[in-house]
Design brief:
The complex is a heterodimer of chains A (205) and B (198).
Chain A lengths: L27 H15 L5 H9 L3 H6 L2 H15 L5 H8 L27 E4 L18 E11 L2 H4 L8 E9 H4 L8 E7 L3 E3 L2
Antiparallel strand pairs in A: 1-2, 1-5, 2-3, 3-4
Helix pairs in contact in A: 1-4, 2-4
Chain B lengths: L13 H14 L4 H15 L2 H13 L1 H9 L1 H7 L10 E6 L4 E6 L8 H4 L4 H4 L1 H6 L4 H7 L9 E6 L4 E6 L11 H5 L4 H5 L5
Parallel strand pairs in B: 1-4, 2-3
Helix pairs in contact in B: 3-4, 4-5
Classes of the chains: A alpha+beta (205), B alpha/beta (198).
Chain lengths: 205, 198
């Protein structure tokens, strides 16, 4: 989905709030949330792709105003409700207030037909796919051409794995793009490397 | 399920919401209290940038190790007793040179090689870094205090899958001949993300 989470290249954001020796956590509850979602993953209630997707399904207004760990909390609660571990009513009764969850999921998809194996140096184009469910292709590379620099081991295909759809594991390719090709006349010169699932790529002939 | 666009009058505080989930887990026998203690011990004591610093210091002082690290990062860090989660099947180590600066990010969420370089700092997970570093890399690095000369090429690595990255910083010339322990003390999390040089 072309969600609010897909931030790469979005314009208008201000200075990085950077400090030396920056903190990972700011409040004690953040550490508890981080552990609780890991516990749910460990117990097999949901997987990491489902977890990421439930964050992406947060209403954009909520996504942008929530802190990082509130997004984590919202994903954890949404999936526990969807998986039947707990109801939203129970959570709201216990929390003594409204407990906002993410929006419902749209269908996922399996691997793309006719996937090709690539090798370093191959020129590839990112397919111009638009999918309603989870996808790990940042919008800024859609339709763009780059060069393969390496191949990873095979991983579960996120577009399927976030939705309980059956699919084969597939490798990802580190693909090198020129920032000038991604955002012509509108970026600092650099090479931008993105880890791209095989299903998202086609060969440039 | 409640319509997510509904007005949010009376939203419970985040603390109340976390308490609600923890209590629900507890009632179902999932033992959240124990797990939180155990997990936070790992997060604070084990997943720390000292691991990455050891890797960097070893690579600076042992050219054969460095070669193995650049060839297969996951296997090389395991030689030092450093493990990665099962789903991080691949570690790519990015070597900086005086004329090349590698920088890592995750535009879609917050992915990092956290068992090696430590959990990601707050700014790494913020909207500003995620939106801007891929498109305005040199400007962003300068704002963060790293003003690179024009001859230094920048390569940004967006962690959009389960491959994990760490940056191998350039060894400061005045530290040639130092021991691994002394060198490791120089290496920061930010230098392994690539937003700082040593």
């Amino acid at each position: 989905m072309d969600g609010m989470h897909d931030l790469g290249g979005k314009q208008g954001f201000g200075r990085i709030r950077y400090s030396l020796h920056a903190q990972v956590f700011h409040e004690p509850w953040e550490k508890r949330v981080n552990a609780l979602y890991s516990l749910a993953v460990k117990l097999g209630i949901f997987n990491m792709d489902e977890y990421r997707h439930a964050i992406e399904r947060m209403e954009p207004r909520h996504y942008l105003t929530a802190s990082y760990y509130e997004r984590s909390l919202t994903s954890l609660a949404t999936l526990c409700v969807e998986k039947g571990i707990v109801t939203q009513e129970e959570l709201e009764r216990r929390a003594d207030g409204v407990f906002p969850l993410a929006a419902p999921s749209a269908p996922g998809r399996s691997n793309v037909a006719g996937r090709e194996r690539f090798k370093p140096g191959d020129r590839v184009r990112v397919r111009t796919d638009y999918v309603p469910g989870h996808v790990r292709m940042p919008g800024y590379i859609r339709g763009k051409t780059g060069v393969v620099v390496s191949e990873s081991p095979a991983y579960p295909f996120p577009d399927a794995h976030a939705h309980g759809v059956k699919a084969a594991d597939e490798p990802t390719y580190d693909v090198r793009f020129r920032s000038e090709d991604l955002w012509p006349n509108s970026s600092d010169p650099a090479l931008v490397h993105v880890a791209v699932f095989q299903s998202y790529l086609e060969r440039v002939r | 399920m409640r319509d997510p666009s509904e007005v949010r009058q009376g939203t419970a505080s985040v603390e109340q919401r976390v308490d609600a989930i923890e209590a629900a887990f507890d009632e179902r026998g999932m033992k959240p209290g124990e797990f939180i203690v155990e997990f936070n011990h790992l997060a604070e004591e084990r997943w720390v940038p000292d691991n990455g610093a050891k890797v960097v210091a070893k690579a600076w002082t042992d050219p054969d190790f460095k070669q193995r690290l650049l060839t297969d990062g996951r296997r090389a860090v395991a030689e030092l007793g450093i493990t990665m989660p099962a789903h991080h099947r691949h570690l790519v180590v990015l070597e900086n040179t005086p004329t090349l600066q590698n920088v890592i990010c995750c535009t879609l969420c917050s992915c990092t090689a956290f068992t090696i370089i430590g959990l990601p700092p707050d700014w790494y997970k913020d909207l500003e870094y995620r939106s801007r570093v891929v498109r305005q890399s040199r400007t962003v690095l300068k704002e963060m205090g790293l003003d690179l000369p024009p001859e230094v090429e920048i390569r940004v690595w967006d962690t959009t899958a389960d491959t994990r990255y760490m940056v191998l910083p350039v060894q400061p010339p005045h530290t040639i001949g130092w021991s691994e322990e002394e060198l490791a003390r120089l290496v920061t999390k930010d230098s392994m993300i690539g937003v700082a040089r040593l």
